[in-house]
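Supplementary Note 2. Why include the ligand at all?

Several targets in our set were suspected to adopt different conformations when bound, so apo predictions alone were not considered sufficient. For every target with a known small-molecule partner we therefore ran a joint prediction. The input for copper (II) ion is given below.
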Amino acid sequence: MEVHRYEKIWIGISLLVIVGWIATVVFGAVGPGIAMVDDSGGQIADPSNPTESDAFRDPGVYQVGENEYEVYVLARQFAFQPGTSEPIRVPANSTVTFYVTSPDVTHGFEVVGTNVNTMVIPGQVAELTVEFDDPGRYGIVCNEYCGSAHHTMEGTIEVVEQDEVNGTEGDT
Ligand SMILES: [Cu+2]
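The joint prediction is reproduced in C-alpha cell form.
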C-alpha cells in the first residue's frame, strides 16, 4: 500500500501534537510539585470539640525544627484561628506544615495567589506542607460557602525575615 507523502507528514504532525499534549498534562501534574491533600492529617475524636484533642488544644504556630514549623488552624464560622484576629507569622525560607480542621461546617483554606488550597471538613484534619520563599503578606480566604457571613471569612499570613520571628514560638 502506498501512503501519500503529504499524508505521512500530517500523520507525523498529528502524532507530535498528541505526544506534546500528553507531555503538558504530565508536566502540569508533576512538574510544579503540586500534591493533592489526602487523609494523612488524621481525624478528630470529637469533631465539634477539636480543642479537646491534643493537637488543637492551643491553635497557633509551633517551631518543630531549625527551619520547620507546624501551624494548627481552626476554621470556624466565620474566622480562622489564628489568622483572622491576628496574622499567622512564619519566617521566610522555612517549611511550614498546616493542620486545619473545623468544629462546625465545611470550610475552605486557600492562601491567595499560591497553590495552597484545601477543603476543611469537620472531624477531618487537612494537612499540607508549604515552603514560603520570600517575605510578604498573603491573604487567606474561605472558598467553601459556609453560611451567611462566608464572604467575610478571611485571614492573613505574614511571611517575615528569619530574625523577625523570634519570640513567636508556641502560640502566636
Ligand atoms: Cu467559610
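The chain has two domains: 1-34, 39-164. The pocket of copper (II) ion is lined by residues 107, 142, 144, 146, 150, 153 (CB under 6 Å). Comparable summaries for the other entries are listed in the accompanying table.
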